[in-house]
Amino acid sequence: MGIGYIVFLILVVVLGWTALTYNRLVKLQVRMEESWHTINVQLKQRWDLIPNLVETVKGYAAHERGVFERVTLARTQAISASSPQEQAVAEERLKGALKSLCAVVEDYPQLKVNENFLELQQTMEQVEDAVQRARVCYNAVVRDLNTSIRIFPRSIIVNLFGFKEREFYALPGEEERGAPKVRL
């Protein structure tokens, strides 16, 4: 065994480790992007439900125009958000606007037993649960990616290929309080 053979063997091991590490980081990045798109799909379902919900409530409470406008504006802002942090802030505003809509519903008992409204309410709850599950999945993948990026000697590969840490999908002030639930 010559020195050339040992150098060749070390080179193969280093290149193999580099390729495996790079591929792991790419897989985590792709999973993170997939998780983010899953959140967006669930949020789009919620956004699509909101106009139907507003129209149903409008039929009973036409004079509550300000509430309907706030819900519509919050929905528009949520749709146009791009980063996880912007999305979280916009979704928090939307939840606040939906709470105002819920307050209107409380004033109209006949609305609470309306078949269309009950169906929309049930669908909205299912979508909220799906959003929560997608958010947990996204944050788990971001955690794994960020951990992999920070670990030495992987950090060498990270710097070589320009991988970046990602931000978690966290609602504003979430550390201080529990997540709100939308109940219509």
What structural class is derived from the secondary structure elements?
A: mainly alpha
| Model regions low in confidence, pLDDT < 50 over at least 5 residues | none
Portion of residues in helices? over 70%
**What's the CATH C level?**
Mainly Alpha
* Main sheet record: none
State the CATH architecture: Up-down Bundle
Rounded to the nearest angstrom, the distance between the terminal CA atoms is 76 Å
Query: SSE order, as H and E?
Result: HHHHHH
- Count the domains: 1
What is the name of the CATH superfamily?
LemA-like domain
Beta-strand fraction estimate: under 5%
Mean pLDDT: 79
CATH-assigned fold name: de novo design (two linked rop proteins)
Shape: rod-shaped
Radius of gyration: 24 Å
Question: What's the number of extended β-strand segments?
Answer: 0
Output the number of helix runs. Answer: 6
